[in-house]
Fold these 3 entries.
Entry 1:
Amino acid sequence: MSFVKVEEKSDFSYHNLPYGIFSTPDNPRHRIGVAIGDQILDLSVIKHLFNGPALGHHQDVFEQPTLNAFMALGYDVWREARKCLQMLLAADESTLRDDVSLRSRAFVQQSSAMMHLPAEIGDYTDFYSSRDHATNVGIMFRGKENALMPNWLRLPVGYHGRASSVVVSRTPIRRPRGQMRPDAAQPPIFGPSKQLDIELEMAFFVGKGNKLGEPIPVEKAHEHIFGMVLMNDWSARDIQAWEYVPLGPFLGKNFGTTISPWVVPMEALMPFVEPNPLQDPAPLPYLHHDEPYMFNINLFVTVKGEGMREAATICKSNFKYMYWSMKQQLAHHTVNGCNVRPGDLLASGTISGPDPESFGSMLELSWRGSKTIDLGEGETRTFLKDGDEVTLYGYCEGSGYRVGFGLCEGKILPALLSDL
Amino acid sequence: MSFVKVEEKSDFSYHNLPYGVFSTPDNSRHRIGVAIGDQILDLSVIKHLFNGPALGPHQDVFEQPTLNAFMALGYDAWREARKCLQMLLAANESTLRDDVNLRSRAFVQQSSAVMHLPAEIGDYTDFYSSRDHATNVGIMFRGKENALMPNWLRLPVGYHGRASSVVVSGAPIRRPRGQMRPDAAQPPIFGPSKQLDIELEMAFFVGKGNKLGEPIPVEKAHEHIFGMVLMNDWSARDIQAWEYVPLGPFLGKNFGTTISPWVVPMEALMPFVEPNPVQVNWVDSKYTFLPPCTLPSLFRFWQRCVLSFLKIILLSFQDPVPLPYLRHDDPYTFNINLFVAVKGEGMREAATICKSNFKYMYWSMKQQLAHHTVNGCNVRPGDLLASGTISGPDPESFGSLLELSWRGSKTIDLGSGETRTFLKDGDEVTLTGYCEGRGYRVGFGLCEGKILPAL
């Protein structure tokens, strides 16, 4: 496959080639790289090798400190870039393989690099597109009869999130303080959240945008979808419950949202596409697309408490459980003329499947605190404790190789103590 | 006052000096200007004149195509810049007045300039802080008993808006299409919104930001508030009604939001500050309404003392008083007259459909900013935080067609034989606003938009 050695269980096989932004101790400049095996190929060093009709005139996009300019060039350019990378990394291609000086400057050990946010995120939207998740939450709070709201099966419900607090994997997350009303008979109180939760999600980056007033039709939506990352939409359930009526979640979410650093291009995921779920009732025509756009991506969540020797897996799920596809989400988001821009982030919503072990939040895994989640070593949880390290990871399983996302990690710091 | 002539009813008196970003036909570069009279003072031309301790090493912020870098410098830099501008524009100051060459390059006619968004907006948040508006909407949809949600009087309710579709005054607004369910007994339908509405709001720009995890305490919040603009939060009520449960408004709002181009610095508004509303649910709010700022500062000082004393007495019996992280005594409510005019296709004159005032807000901007960051959320220079629809107690002060027509149950008269419940294609909506000083105004220019037909 490639002249770069790749372990069989590596996320970064020759079939992946995800993009990310990194820097190194000797060179703090943020630059674009592609992950392969345990290496990073520094695109700023080899930009002169991208000579195709689309990229030849825009090689400088690989000099940028973010992926936005490259994303903005559009679908044909991404395909051309991928072809070029596959060629340059091929076992039988000498251009990079045999150029000792270039090769030594172009490759960096992943373990010595620091990863950064891959793009400047102009807007971040969070959807709510897992039927099992929405049903679970509905049952917990409204009972079985009224579990799903009437609009849930008709449109991909979503809300605007906070762009400024999207952080890259390994950024510590401080337990938020806020206003809560645990006892409806008492006045609200202020203090650290006692119901800090995770949300296993995936998110896609918009590549090419659209003009204000000009919707993206669902059949063309894939041309605007660049690639995917893992996301942990940390949530403070007590803060959220008191604030969210009627305008939606706000401070219960915007204290921090973590994404994995490597953006896996859609082309790398297409071999793992599956048919779309049956949608009943059938969506309105603007949301209807036949071509499959559901992906089999294995997803895992582990938690390691302070003092534990090993992390415990608390969730095994899959992106294929989504009800609404990314094409439908993007078409819906722009159908009223709303403009998306390169680098915008659109997240799936908590991913839960039908089995309890596939529930993507502690709210569901503990069923609103009514049972405990076992971490082994004598540790249990209903919600997160200070010091907990949460790791999300995921991959598509190919024949003898993987296309994976790296790690989406965060550690909980104790809430601030100062008087407020 | 200034050597630049200013009409008495101009928004851009010597006491204002708002910042904006403009370009001209002969020079398409976006640059920073200050409005005065019917002129714009191009700060990129005179940046070398800002020589104070805060700005001297950072003159290049006035070379930028947006205000973000200047905003990021912080409170002391803004004060210094304002002093410098007041000095340079003073009638008796010759530096700019008498330098014929510099003066001719530095001033541009407002009428020949194109205005642009004043800042790059990283995040836009919309609050819901007018008690009358929230109550009206509550009564219309839930009845008098359950008008205000239990959390409304406890925290400044807000939601994240869409930054990409915030546009500057003058940008046309296309009627959105979307999914709606006008008849609950029928499946939802798709089509152009039939309930296109306006929302009279004001918004402030964050100047200096905070780090993720480090809240802005309410007593320091004003150091982070740069200045204000008018905002029209166009809304599609039918799209909104069907989508918004349980995660809030989305496509019913994000097809377009218009702001006025001139950012009025908080220092220009401080002369028009009023005591904060008493935050309780049973005290008659008319206690807090005081005449506008024609009073000498000493009298105002005593007014504040008396009111603070009253509040201390009342506070011990009041419920709900906000939690400590939201409490601030210094006044931060502003007397800003606000107007909405609508001109339909073919009408000769616009009709004023709303006369309101920013002083009707229940939650202050300091409370909104402190609340927004109390959980550690980070705001950045250029972030936009809007007030929510501004409605007062009188029907003529309601800031949306939804309220003015009371959910379509009565029509709004535009004169010339025209009436409205919601907007029609071709309608031009103009928001204006100003503080009334003695013989001068501090105003916001225009916040305009025209409705184009749906695709």
Note: The longest strand of chain A covers residues 402-413.
Entry 2:
Amino acid sequence: MRFPKLPNLGLGDRIPSHQELERMEKEEAGDRPKWDNKTQYMLTCVGFCVGLGNVWRFPYLCQSHGGGAFMIPFLILLVLEGIPLLHLEFAIGQRLRSGSVGVWTAINPYLTGVGIASLLVSFLVGMYYNTIIAWVMWYFFNSFQNPLPWSQCPVNANLTDLVSECTRSSPVDYFWYRDTLNTSTSIGDSGGLQWWMVLCLLCAWLLLYVCCLRGIATTGKAVYVTSTLPYVVLTIFLIRGLTLKGSLDGIKFLFTPDLNELMNPSTWLDAGAQVFYSFSLAFGGLISFSSYNSVHNNCEQDAVIISIINGFTSVYSATVIYSIIGFRATERFDDCLEGNILALLNAFNLAEGSIKEGNYAESLQNLNGTFPETIQSLDLKTCDLQTFLSQGVEGTGLAFIVFTEAITKMPVSPLWSILFFIMLFCLGLSTMFGSIEGTVVPLQDLNIFPKRWPKEAITGIVCLVSFVIALIFAQSSGNYWLALFDSFAGSIPLLVIAFCEMIAVVYIYGIDRFNKDIEFMIGHKPNLFWQVTWRFVSPLIVLVIFVFYFVTKVSSNVTYIAWNPSSEDFPTLEVLEYPAWIYVIIFILAGVPSLVVPGTAIFKLIRRCCSNKNVYGAEVDTVSAKVQMFTTKMS
Amino acid sequence: MISYVFWGSLALSGIKEGMLVWILFLLCQVGAPALAQDLCQRDAPNGYKVRISLKTALGEDAYEWNQSEMFFFQATMAFAMRRHFQMETYNVDNIILCVQTSRVSFWFVVTSPDNTTMLIPKADVEKAVRMSRHRINNAFLLSDRTLEFLGIYPTLAAPVNPDTPPWLIVFGVVIGAVCVGIIALLISSLLQKRRKEKGMTEDGQDEEDMQVKGVENGINLDGTYNRGFTDDDRFTKL
């Protein structure tokens, strides 16, 4: 019984047949780039999948959704959603030997929109992702000094006192919000370009250009470093972290399971979203990379291996991050307690060492009993280790505030700072390779640039245009713009594209044809697990996540958090509502890529229906080749 | 007791002057400490409270704070006053300490060397302490944080401003390397292309219409797929 599929005429003419594939394989037709060896391909895919999200999003989700219990939904959805989608993208790229636009156009010309949507998303995400790399580079450049600039507050202009914005918050906050971003108080207040940020952005884009100059010929060499170095650094940090006081508290806190969280639907939703984004699916980059493989490469095995590596990296980096966070929380707790003890000693003129951590509680009780007013006037802080541990931060806050603070407390801080930011840089850069691939190859497929232009020129133009547009992130309000891009450009469109991809392959290309292709490529048919997940389970999961995301975003008031020194709750970030004109930008970011999918189909339909010419194609077999001739016949 | 002595000596009606001197001497003995007590007290208007944290600063190597250390402090303060005022000779006796606690904290006042009943104003003492703060700290192996003069805030160290910020130097190195890399790769691409074109035009004379790869010596292998004439772009154009 054949699985139902939608009618799809002319598919055989658009794609190379199995015999043609064998022929191309034998001749090593050199027009298309190829991987030097399997390792390069695997490292590139691992690098694309493993990114900053593994380091700063997964640990936060893990800790806030019940610690060790979060592994359960994460692993289940990894198997049911991540691996099937990954296998699908690898297989279709390897079979149809083309980038995202090429693949979807080959399946059906009306599906070109899916490829274009991938192109737009890759472009938009690449822009803001590289800005984060620029920030990482800024911190990296500033790590070559002792003491680190974010370890102490600067002195004000009169040399009378420390800068007040810094004393009210903290040196790390001040360095991030003032010295790095010079952030304004709202998204509407642009504040002009910050020259140091422009320089770092320029450096980031130039570095990306030098690595992507010749496509996979250059990125293939770069990934030997960028994909392996993060693991080395993580291991170094793990060893260093485990020798620090309080690290085990952090790890215990991270993995302590709270099984009640499994009842909460948002846990499953967040797990599903994390798996999806963590695999960098629907960007088009993976399809491209896999199309440079030989036809008989075992894509099934690759998908499983890369998924396992991705999952393992998430858990590993969560352990490392939380060991350092545990150290920081313990340091903060100790400082807090010491401050309280000192206040008590000074107020009551007691000998040093009479109140220690052990007898603090009872000493405080005794003193409170005898001198309650004095204790009141001291305004002692409550020191709770759990509170410090659960100052769970994610994203840029984790890397640039919490972790940098922890680094300042370690001996030989500049070394750890340099290592940490090199690791972040490598993680980000290897993801950018996939983004650039997902932008440049579709542009080539769409013939937007003349064919004779070399790849170097096209990559250069893409980098230049991205750099110019990314200058909005170098303004004072750049941080808010980046958060906007992150929430909208990199979320809803990807879910739409992934859903369309699965429908396209299963129902339009035909799952039966797909199964035969995989049998041709790797030697055996995909087993029942793949059949069930491709046909029902994975599309359903993606649809559910999309619906929930969409509903939550649309129904809730869209707000953002801003740094405002003159607000009442400073240093807590202020919650502001977006101005009305931002909704236009949101529509451009999320709506346009999503609507391009049906839009292109409609556009092509209109063009074909409304044109009065019927184009007939005839094929003539000659001695040297097949020649396709087109004649137009007026109807 | 003084009144008895006074009247008694008058009654004896001896040498008045000698008696007067003796009376004054007695007054000084009894009254001076009392006067000093009045001068130095908790919250004295012209005094400062000093707080010392030995265990925090020195940990295991902390020395014991005893009367000798107090004497040392008096001597150090006298030195600081001398250093500031230069003309006047302060002595250990001019530094009066009181209200010592086990924290280790105490109050001190400074009397003028000319008139022991007159106190040096707070502002002058502060100037003297500020001037010699570093020497005072070092005398006790302590720092601004562990030897506190409550009310005298340590002056902040002037920030070290290098001519070029260090980050610019690293930035310059990185961007220089990247630019060199880009130029090198672009030039090598150009050279490769030129070599290819040269290679093509040399063989091209014989095989102009046979741009077939894997062909040697102009022999056309059977069944070779001639890519020269196929349209690579089999996909429907947008």
Note: The longest strand of chain A covers residues 613-621.
Entry 3:
Amino acid sequence: MAVCIAVIAKENYPLYIRSVPTQGELKFHYTVHTSLDVVEEKISGVGKALADQRELYLGLLYPTEDYKVYGYVTNSKVKFVIVVDSSNTSLRDNEIRSMFRKLHNSFTDVMCNPFYNPGDPIQSKAFDSIVSTMMVQAC
Amino acid sequence: MSPAQWDLPPELCCRPMAFVALTGLDVVYNAIHRAIWDAFCANRRADRVPISFKVLLGDHEYPKCRTKRTSYEWYIPKGILKTGWMNKHLNLVPALVVLFYELDWDDPQWKEKQSECATKVEIVRTSLQGRNTKVAVVLIQKKTPLPPGEDLVASERASALCGACDLSGKSLFVLPHTDHLVGYIIRLENAFYEHAQTYYYNEIRRVKSHKEFLNKTTHQVTRISAVNRNFYIAEFIYKDPHTFHVLSCRYYRTAYSLVHELRAHETNMLEIKTMAGFINYKICRLCFQHNTPLDAIAQFRKHIDLCKKKIGSAELAFEHTAWMSKQFQSFGDLFDEAIKLGLTAIQTQNPGFYYQQAAYYAQERKQQAGQLCSHEPGVVYPAPDPLETPSGALDFYGQRPWRQGHQSIDPPDSEKEKQGILALQVKERDVLHSELVIALLSNAVAQFKKYKCPRMKSHLMVQMGEEYYHAKDYTKALKLLDYVMCDYRTERWWSLLTSILCTALKCSYLMGQVKDYITYSMELMGRASILHEEQKSRIEKNLIKVLMNEVPQPEPDCDLTSVKTAQSLWSDRISLAGNNEFTIEVQDYVPFVQCKAKFLYPSFHIDEPVQLHVYVRADCPHPVRFSKLCVSLSNQEYNQYCLLEDTSKEKDILETSTQENMCLVPGKTRKYCFKFVAKTEDVGKKIEITSVGLMLGREMGRYVYLNWRGGWGDAASSHETLQASRSFKRRTRLPEQQLDWDTVTIQSSTMIISRVPKISVQLTHEPPALTNEMYCMIVTIQSEEDTVAKDIKLTAGLKPGQDASLTQSTQITVNGSEVCDDSHPALLPDISLGDLQPGQKIVKPLYIHCMSTGSRILLFHVAYSVSATVEGKDINCKCHKDETVTLETVVPFEVAMKFVSSKFEHLERVYVDIPFLLMMDILSASPWPIELVNSEVQLASSMTPIDQPQSQVEGVTLQTSECASECFLLKCPPVQNGTSTVASGHYFISWKRKSAFAETSVVRTIVILPHVMLENIPLYVHAELPSFGRVRESLPVRYHLENRTGLVQDVEIGVEPSDAFMFSGLKQPQGRNGDTSIEAA
């Protein structure tokens, strides 16, 4: 399960970011922010050749000693970042994928809300609860 | 315990090379020896064999060799790797000792020299004492040797010498001192290298043979020895460049896994880790050299995973983190080195990550040191120093100085152990951790910069800044933080920005930097900060204090001694010495005050005041008062009208009763209106808001100017505006006097345009115009002004910017009595019409001469000046009014000409002396009636009129599509040659438009008459025929035949009647022309 989940706007500012409250929130913010380097690189590398059938899931962005950071980019260049604990070896790539897919579906619902102004921070309760299901339950 | 304690020993990091000692060389006084030595040492490139040479004295003492143990039964090793072992085999115990001796084969004192040489060899042998080191002899000879086998004396003496010295023939070399020294030397050293290899090979065999003594590998002791053995073997193999990769690596790996099989407990944990670190270093290094970086990374990961949890003594936990940090750092170094040698790294796998992790462990070490080493003030460094050893160094790597060689689980002396730990802790306290962290971070920054990770780089720079802050180097901290701040600001990561700002604010507080303090406070209070209200409120109070020239409250969580210094610094600032006025360019920050300035309209007429609104809003928790609001415009003369200043000089900045206007209430938008009258010179110019300044604080004391360039917007505004424009939200109606900030649009420039003219300009004319006519247009200007319109000027004519050919074919004049020519312009500028009283009107006829058909746009521009009063100011306004009209020009009539005979039959050609008619048809194409005043034919010399030609159309008026015709009787005098084309002349028509509207002038149109074919004929036949005949009555016909030649002609005439006629009279008369006239009836 994730320790931090973030949604980043096309212009690379955070739309939504939530982390487990037990550890330093700031640290996760920095982790997500720095992972954008890799996301940008991957998008720019892939974008040219296979713009249409591009895989949205970017896979493992980079491993740190303590965390693994995974990335996902929607067609509108909104980025999802999931941080999981390195010690959590039970999580497989497929599970991460399905987490992203769930996140994307929920995000699409948020975007479909006529009262949501794209580019504003996400304050949806439904989205919040989907994220909660994917987060490590704080003990 | 210096920080260098954790560094890898240099003998580990260098590349092991075979050690060969050279004796018998006097490199100081003997030039030949010097040259030989230089040839050995200089230019040791990679293609030469890996040998390290050293010049030693002949009786040099080499390290003593231990007596060989025959049984390991009672042997207990004191540690894994002796500290001296690597150095010993690198630099002290040679694989080969070479004796240089000057001796030629034909030396006269051969015998003596031979025995001297043998003695020297013996001395070397003695000093080596039981080592397996080889000995070789090199004879330095002056003569070039003969090819082998030819010099019998030489071979004989060589074998004698070998015998005397107890050397094999392979160990005796000859070095002729000739021109090819380097070539000989290279051959020599290759031979040396073979000897050295044999030596190391024997050593390996010897070490391997120990295995037989170690029957069981379960015993700790035997395990240690096994590690030892494998390490030794690997080290020796490493010295051989051809096999080192695979084999050496295999032994190192074995040694590595054996290290981890050792039973680990608190007392030997450090030793095991040290050893594991050493071997890991060797393996990784070999993998990189072998170009298998993935193996290196995998080995390193394995190493870290195995060792991560081996913390050892909890009281010395910092040692573990220091060691971990070192592991990452040295791997980073290895990685970086490999990259320099051609390896390519990628964004997600580069040395930066290892340096970063090393820095992370260094930070952790610092934390642990802070916890474990904060002793009571009374605790001092224990005496005697438990870290002192008799030799000054450790015997084995990774052991404790106070219990060297101790191998059991429990420490031998718990008191000593305590003292030792205390000593280590006290030492650790003095380590400059921050420096270590910063050095590692800056290494990482350099790497991430290389591998396109700007955000990672910024993050590390923030960490560096924070580390500098902890190290109390606030200047450097602030510099770094300030540098990266804007990256986070432009990327809109407010959480991160806030955290950086907080640190920066602390730094600026502790340094007493007023400007930085104000800047950071302003941003922390603003909407970009995610601080809580109470924190913002605290910062605001401090900011107000600073602006009132008081000492601000210290920032929380600051170092106490630094706070004391800071407080005195701030007290010094009270004297207001130095600069106390600060300008903050808002577009680089997100301050707590927002501003939008706009002109009310995109343009203003000169006779109305220009209105400007400035909206200001504060986001801070408490109301804030400002002392000045000023707007700078592109024309600075207006600035004085756009100024709001606190005129009262009272001291209390919070006094609000009278100054309510200049107080900003959080969350409420305030509007300030300015008005000014534009100068008449600025008509047609743009006025822009260059900046809006808001002054906080007092002009007498300390103040800060917030400057909005262009009148609005800080670092976050453009995005906010974009979001607001996208927003679906209905503009909620706010209570009176309140505005929704987002609805305020920006209008940062305005045009000053001239006053609206109060005159009417009317054009009266009868379109279309006719080609070449003086077309009359009457301009009527009527004043609707209340005062006198002075200096009226009319500019009329072709509107500029049309086809250039129109300019050529259009002329305008005020004088209609004469036809224009080329000297008249197409546009007549500034026709002065004098003044115009209110209600008066001026009528001005203008004449336009269009020489070509088509449509053209005409411009009538009336300019005048009038005085007006705006806001109590008299200004002289210039007004103008433009009228344009599109004028069509058509041809007035078309003239058709033809030549006909006197019987009005069409003629293709005319004949000499035979009269004919020239006929003109004038077809009117004008929609208006045309009066033909006169017409005239001007004949060319080739034609003469028969009667007096007189106009037959004079005074005729043609309506639309009516036609007037006239004809002239002409004949052509004889011409020289038979047939030719002759010119006819010109036809002039004088005409005018028949108009009741205006007096028109006569226009003379010239038409060129067509050319005609003229023919000479010899015989002219002319018939006289009655106009009609009656049935059964005779019809007399008379034919005249005229000979026009100068000669007599015979003619025969035949008449052929048609069926309707019968003949009477001569049917076939014959005659001669000229003498008689033949008549037929």
Note: The interface with chain A takes residues 347-348, 353, 357, 360, 452-456, 459, 462, 491-493, 495-496, 499, 719, 722-723, 726-729 of chain B (CB under 8 Å).
